[in-house]
Amino acid sequence: EDQVTQSPEALRLQEGESSSLNCSYTVSGLRGLFWYRQDPGKGPEFLFTLYSAGEEKEKERLKATLTKKESFLHITAPKPEDSATYLCAVQAPPDKLIFGTGTRLQVFP
Amino acid sequence: DVKVTQSSRYLVKRTGEKVFLECVQDMDHENMFWYRQDPGLGLRLIYFSYDVKMKEKGDIPEGYSVSREKKERFSLILESASTNQTSMYLCASSRPGREQYFGPGTRLTVT
Question: N or C: less crowded end of chain B, CB within 10 Å?
Answer without folding.
Answer: N
